[in-house]
Amino acid sequence: MTPLVNRIAELLYPLSDFYAASGARLPDVETVDGLKMPQPFRRLLVHRNDMTPTLEAFAGQRIGLRTLEVHRGEDALYRQVVLITDGDEQPMEFGAIKIYVDRFEAEAREKILGCRCPLGTILHDYKIKHASRPTDFFSMTSDPVIAGALGLEDAERTLYGRHNVLWDAENMPLAEVVEVLPPFDDRPNAQENGDG
Q1: CB atoms < 10 A from the CB of 75, how many?
Q2: CA pair distance 32, 15, nearest whole angstrom
Q3: Residue 46, exposed/middle/buried by CB under 10 A (0-12, 13-18, 19+)?
Q4: 119 CB contacts (<8 Å, ≥6 apart)?
Q5: Taking Cα atoms as reference points, which of 54, 42, 12 lies closest to residue 29?
Q6: Cα separation values, 183 from 39, 60, 187, Å
Q7: In the prediction, which pLDDT does 122 show?
């Protein structure tokens, strides 16, 4: 792989692994200065908070999980998912996550392996001390995979996202995640919750 292809694969890891396994080409992506990202994406992505409660506050309802693909590696669980609103099942985020399940206590680990609940909810419910440290922000052109997951009619939309690592109290990684948001401009609450 060329240095640029390697950089994109790192930026989109672990999503890049799902694409590699399916033989699909990664979408076009560019790093973005988080402070120059348009609203509401800057407010929703450029912070050190968990995405699940951030999206719940934005949507005004609980967030659930739709699992698209799962596989278990030697040291981690890999999931490709869509976070959806509980009430009307609106897609709120497309992503891929690598979760180091062995670093969780048994009850939380069982919940993670069940693949029915967002990691952010589990971290909150089990009061797991952790830190969220985004490493990069980016824009991308959606492709058929992401457009299909987010229910977008137009397969070539500009989307915004981030690469994030969650760390435990001993500074060991709990999860590595790519989080991509849909274009909220066509949602009823986009105007209410935009720049305000």
Answers
A1: 10
A2: 18
A3: middle
A4: 52, 97, 99, 112, 166, 175, 177
A5: 12
A6: 11, 17, 8
A7: 97
pLDDT digits over 61-79, tens only?
999 999 999 999 888 999 9
The pair of three-digit structure tokens given for residue 182, joined into one six-digit string: 């849909």
Model confidence, pTM: 0.91
Share of the chain above pLDDT 90, in %: 84
**Alpha carbons 16 and 11: distance in angstroms, whole number:** 8
Q: How confident is the model at residue 136 (pLDDT cuts 50, 70, 90)?
A: very high
> Which alpha helices (H) appear in the chain, and where do they start and end?
3-11, 15-22, 41-45, 51-59, 106-114, 119-125, 144-150
pLDDT of residue 192: 41
Q: What is d(CA 169, CA 123) in angstroms, rounded to the nearest whole number?
A: 13
Residue 85 has pLDDT above 90, yes or no: yes
Task: Indicate if the alpha-carbon torsion angle 62, 131, 17, 109 is positive or negative.
Answer: negative
